Amino acid sequence: MIPVEQAAVSPDGKVGFTRCEAIGFGLSLAGLAFVLHFHLLAALFAGCLVHELVHLLARHGPQQRRGRRKVIVIGGMTTVVVGALVAAGLGLIAFARGPAMADVISRSAEVLDQVRDALPEQWAGYLPDGLDELRERGAELLRSHAAELQLAGRSAGMLVVHLLIGMIVGAMVSLREASGDFRGGPLASALQHSLRAFGSAFRNVIFAQIRISAINTTLTSIYLVAILPLFGVQLPLLKTLIVFTFVIGLIPVAGNLISNTAIVLVALTHHPVTAAASLGYLIFIHKLEYFLNARIIGGRVHAHAWELLAAMLAFEAVWGIGGLVAAPVVYAFVKSELVRVRLV
Predict the structure, then answer these.
(1) Residue at 1 is within a domain
(2) How distant, in Å, are the alpha carbons of 1, 308, 311 from that of 334?
(3) ∠202-317-159 over CA atoms, to 5°?
C-alpha cells in the first residue's frame, strides 16, 4: 500500500479524484462487494497471492529480461502449485489411512469409556459402547446426512476450482504486465491503478499476517509443549499440530478458528478436561488475534487499531467470516486511495 507520508498527489495539487479515477474507484468497490456477496474471496486472494509472488520473484534482474523472467516464473509457479495441491490431497488421504489417525480413533474410544464410567447410568446409555459401536454410529450418521455431505463435497470441489481459476487469472495478469504493451484510455488506466493499489494492500496485510501467525504458533506451542506436560499430559501429533497452526494461521482470523478446532479435537482424545482447558486457552488466543490483527496490520498499512477493529466488525456483520477475513485488505486499499488524493 502507498504509505501515508509518501502518498502521491495530482500534479496540479488538486484534492479529490478525477472523474475517471472516481469511476474506477467506484467500480473497484462494487467488484469487491460482488466478490464478498457471492463468496469468491478465495479466488480473489489466490489470484493476488500468485500475482504478488510473481512480482516478488521476478523483481531482480535487468529491466529488458523481466518479461522473460516472469514467463519462466509463472510456468514454474503453476507447476509447483498444482504439484503442491496434488501432494496435499495425497498427504491427507495417507494421513487419514495411516497409523496416526488410527491411534487418535483408538484414544477417542478410550476417552468414551472413561466418560461412560463417570456418568450416571441413565446418561451413559446415550454414549457409544466401545470402538465398534462408535464406528456403527459414525456410519449411521454418514448415511443419515448423505445429502448434506454431498453438498459439502460439492462446495469443497467448487472451492478448489475457484482457487485454481484465481491463480490462473493472477498468473495471466502478471504475464500481461510483463509484456509491457498496455494501451488504454483514462478509465482503463484508473482501473489498472486501483488493481495495483489493491495488490499493494494485499501484500502488506499478508506480510503482517505472517508475523501474527508466528506469534499465534509460538503461544500455541508453549501450551502444547510446555504447559500441558507440567500436568502430565502428552498429546499425540504435536509436531503436526504446530506446523498446521502456522500454515493455516496465514488465513486471517478463520485460520485461527480452524487450528483451534483441530487442537481441541486431539485434546479430547486424552480427556474431556484437557479439551475444556485447551478450549479456554485457545479462545484467549483467538480473542488476542483480533487485537494483533488491528495492531500489527494497522502499523503496516498506517491505520489506527480502532479503525481496523471497526472495519472488521462492520464487514463481519454484513458478510460474515468472509468479510472478517477481507476487512483488513479492503480497508487498507480504501484508505490508501483516499490518502493519495488527500481526502483524509
Answers:
(1) no
(2) 10, 12, 11
(3) 55
- The number of folded domains in the chain is 1
Task: Using CB atoms within 10 Å of the CB of residue 192, give its burial: 0 to 12 exposed, 13 to 18 middle, 19+ buried.
Answer: middle
Cell output for 100: 496416526
Query: What is the CB neighbour count within 10 angstroms for residue 102?
Result: 11
Amino acid at 176: R
Question: Smallest Cα–Cα separation from 257: which of 235, 285, 237?
Answer: 285
Question: Does any domain span residue 166?
Answer: yes
In a domain, 4, yes or no: no
Please give the single-letter amino acid code of residue 333: F
Cβ atoms of residues 279 and 257 within 8 Å: no
* Measured distance CA(344)–CA(337) in Å, rounded: 9
Residue 2 is assigned to a structural domain of this protein: no
Q: Vertex 248, ends 218 and 135: CA angle to 5°?
A: 105
Contact 330, 194 (CB under 8 A): no
Contacts of 337 (CB under 8 A, 6+ apart): 25, 194, 197
Residue written as cell 509443549? 225
- The range of the structural domain enclosing residue 164 comes to 12-340
Give the tens place of pLDDT for each residue, 64-121: 455 566 667 666 766 776 667 667 666 666 665 666 556 656 666 666 666 666 555 6
Cα angle 319, 38, 145 (rounded to 5 degrees) comes to 90
Closest Cα partner for 265 from 249, 244, 246, 251?
244
Angle (nearest 5°) at CA 280 between 275 and 282: 90
The pLDDT tens digits for 275-331 are 888 888 888 887 777 777 777 777 777 778 788 888 888 998 999 888 888 998 999
213 close to 255: Cβ distance less than 8 angstroms: yes
Torsion-angle region of residue 13: left (phi > 0), alpha (psi -120 to 50) or beta?
left
C-alpha to C-alpha distance for 317 and 268, rounded to whole angstroms: 32
Cell numbers given for 191: 482501473
Residue 262 grid cell: 483441530
261-271 pLDDT, tens digit per residue, is 888 878 877 77
Q: Say whether 25 sits in a helix, a strand or coil.
A: helix
